Structure formats: C-alpha cells, structure tokens
Amino acid sequence: MADGLDCGGQWLDLSRPAVVGVVNITPDSFSDGGTVTGAASAVAQARRMVEEGAAMVDVGGESSRPGAAPVDEKEELRRILPVVEALAEALPVPISVDTCKPGVMRAAVAVGAGMINDIRALNAPGALEAAADAGVPVCLMHMQGEPRTMQDAPRYGDVVGEVRDFLAGRIEAAAGAGIPQDRLVVDPGFGFGKSLRNNYELLGRLDALVELGVPVLVGMSRKSMIGNLLERPLDQRLVGGAAAAALAVFQGARLVRTHDVAATADAVRVAQAARRPDGIE
User: Fold this and answer.
1) Which of 19, 73, 88, 188 has the fewest C-beta atoms under 10 angstroms from its C-beta?
2) Residue 23 near residue 42 (C-beta atoms within 8 A)
3) Cα four-point dihedral sign 167, 61, 76, 72
4) CB 202 within 8 A of CB 154
5) How much is the pLDDT for 93?
6) 199-207 long-range contacts, CB within 8 A, separation 24+
7) Cβ distance 218 to 186 under 8 Å?
8) At what angle do helices 196-204 and 159-176 cross, to 10 degrees?
9) What are phi and psi of 20, to 5 degrees?
10) In contact, 64 and 119? CB cutoff 8 Å
C-alpha cells in the first residue's frame, strides 16, 4: 500500500493516519445542516479544522442522512463550486468533494478538488468514466439501499464479508475503467444501510477491509451508531466518536472523517502510538 495519495498535485501523507474535516454546504445534514452557508463561512470553518489537525477537508452539497431527499445537479453545483474553489485557494491541504454525480465530480475537480468521495462507489451511470478522466483519488463507499430507505430494514448474512466483497468488486471495476489501485480508498459506510449491530461488527473486524490493500477511510462522527449505543443526543457524542476513531485506527484505518477534528486528532494519535510504538521519538 502506498504511503500517501497524489490529490491533484497535493500530497496527502498516509504514513500515519490522517484526519479529514467535514464541511457540509447543506440545509439538512443530520449534524451540522445550515451552519455553513457560503464560501466565507466554509473557509473560516475549514481553516479552524486545519489548525486543529485536519490533513484534508471534505465538502458536501447533498445530505446523505437516512430519509434525505435528493438534490439535483444544478443545485449541488450552485452550493459547492464556489466553496471548493475558495477552499482550494485558501488552504494548504487537499479538498475532497463528497458527490455521486459525474457532472459534479468533473466540475469540482476543475476548480480545485483533489479527491472524489462517492457514497455510491462510482455506480452511477458515467461515474467511473468521470473519475477516471479526473485523474484524482477516489473513495469507494459501501451502502445497502438508498439514503431515503437504507435504514428501514438492513439485512446481511455476514456483514463484514459482504461489505468486503462489494468493495473488492468496486476496486476491480475501477481498475477496468483505468483507475489504478494507488488512487483508491475504501469506506465501509458506517450507518449506510447497517443496523447498530452491523456497524459494530464492522468496527470490530475492520482489519478484514484493510486486507484489500488500499487505504481505509472511516466516518462515524456524531452518527446514530454512537448515539443509540450510548443513548446520547448529537451534542454529547464526541467521546464515543473519538473512541470509535481510535479503534478503527488501531486496526489499520488510514483516514478518519469527522466533524470534531481536535478531539479526533488526539484519539488517532494515541491509537497510532499504541499500534506503532516504534514511530515514537
């Protein structure tokens, strides 16, 4: 596995786990909908995240929370393009764009995005071709069903094996479209068509996904898998989310996507020190 990703000319060092800060340009995201309303507020939030330890910032213009309504391409472009362009100019770290639409992928990369983060794992018509043409890394995520209905009744025989097989298949599909393995990242999709038990089965056996040979990204920040287990509301999930991030890193996750950068960065650093104490000077 490579020790980093070339994100459109900016190097993302993965010799140690990296924290990815979340900037949502949406009115209805489950955790922070409506808090960022344009380029100026996005830059201010992202700068704070970089100061707290974020090595990448992920920008999304369409909520993927359970039950979320879809957003058309024109509206998604209106929301994110000015923000991606402003962040690319203002920040010293790569920008990832969270989208499943080929047209948004192309446009966002054209204004400075250095990575594509796709919850549909390039399954939309034309997405494989758009990602291949863009020439930047791609994160392939597993999701059972669609955002509107994915949490209605998720079913698996062996959730870890099924998620692993799906992601292996998408790595193969990407290779067939001309996207080399050194440009790929995988995400098990915590909370995307998984029961509470499914999520923790995946977290407890994350090393099975690490064996795919590409960096693993995890995103558990503030999610219901934390809140439902601990019976905590959104504003009281920080400790649980940091613990989950540490467990993921201890098993080999290389990227942790979070709304809470400072605390997560500390948890990641401690977990990495326990995993690789030879790296402590």
Assistant:
1) 73
2) yes
3) positive
4) no
5) 98
6) 199/225, 200/225, 200/229, 201/159, 201/160, 202/159, 202/160, 202/163, 203/244, 203/247, 203/248, 204/247, 205/160, 206/247, 206/248, 206/251, 206/252, 206/253, 207/251, 207/252
7) no
8) 70
9) -110, 120
10) yes
Place of tokens 């707290």: 52
β partners of residue 95: 57
Q: What is the pLDDT of residues 116-144, one digit of tens each?
A: 999 999 999 999 999 999 999 999 999 99
Q: What is the 8-class DSSP label of residue 18?
A: E
Question: What is the predicted pLDDT for the residue at 117?
Answer: 98
The Cα–Cα gap between 188 and 223 comes to 14
Tell me the pLDDT tens digit for each residue of 183-220. 999 999 999 999 999 999 999 999 999 999 999 999 99
What does 263-276 look like in DSSP terms, one character per residue?
HHHHHHHHHHHHH-
Structure-block tokens of residue 36: 């960022």
Q: What is the spatial distance between Cα 97 and Cα 23, in angstroms, rounded to a whole number?
A: 10
Helix ranges (H only) for 55-138 are 73-90, 102-110, 127-134
> What's the pLDDT tens digit per position in 89-126?
999 999 999 999 999 999 999 999 999 999 999 999 99
For the cut 70, the answer to whether the pLDDT of residue 34 exceeds it is: no
Structural domains in the chain, sorted by start: 17-272 (3.20.20.20)
Question: What backbone phi and psi angles, to 5 degrees, belong to 268?
Answer: -65, -40
The residues annotated with a catalytic role in the active site are 223, 257
Q: In the numeric block, which tokens belong to residue 200? A: 């923790």
User: Shortest CA distance to 110 belongs to which of 140, 77, 149?
Assistant: 77
Strand segments, DSSP code E, in 10-65 are 10-13, 18-24, 54-60
Indicate the pairing of strand 184-187 with strand 217-219: unpaired
